[in-house]
Design a protein that fits this description.
This protein has 2 helices and 6 strands. It is of the alpha+beta class.
Length: 158
Amino acid sequence: MATTPNYSTIIANIRTALLEIEATVVSCDAVPYSFHRQGLFPFWTNAINVANFAKRADKFMTCTLQVQVVHHVGLMTGGLDGELEKSAQELALELPLAFIERPRLKCASFPTHVDGIEPMGLTVTSCNLANVSFNGSETTRAVVCELAIPILFLVNIK
C-alpha cells in the first residue's frame, strides 16, 4: 500500500504544480505566494489557505485547501483602451480549462498526479476579472484574472 505524503510535502508539491501549470498558459514570472509585486507584467501569484479539515479514519483526515491563483495582466494605463481587458477576458476562459484538464495537478514534475490529492479533488469555483491597487495607491491599478480552486486531499495523522 502506498503511503500518503504528509501535509508539508503535499503543500510544497501543490505549489510546484501550480507554477508549472501556469507556465503552460502564459509563460512569465510566477511566485508561489500572494504578497508580491514587480514592475514587469504579466506575472503570476498564488495563495494557499486552509479551508477545512475532517477526520476520515483512524490514521487519515481530509483537508480542503482554498487556492487563489492570480494572473496580473498589466497596468490599467498600459496599451490601447480595452486591450488589457480583452486579454484578461480571453485568459478567464483559458485558465480554468488548464486546471480542469489536470484534476490532480498533473504536470512535468508529477506526470500522473500530485500524491494525496483525491481523484475528484480539484475544481475551479470562480474566475473573476478585477482591477486592483498595484502599489497601495488608487492611481496605479492593475488588471488581474483571479481563480478560486478548492483542492481536496488526504493526509496522514499520527
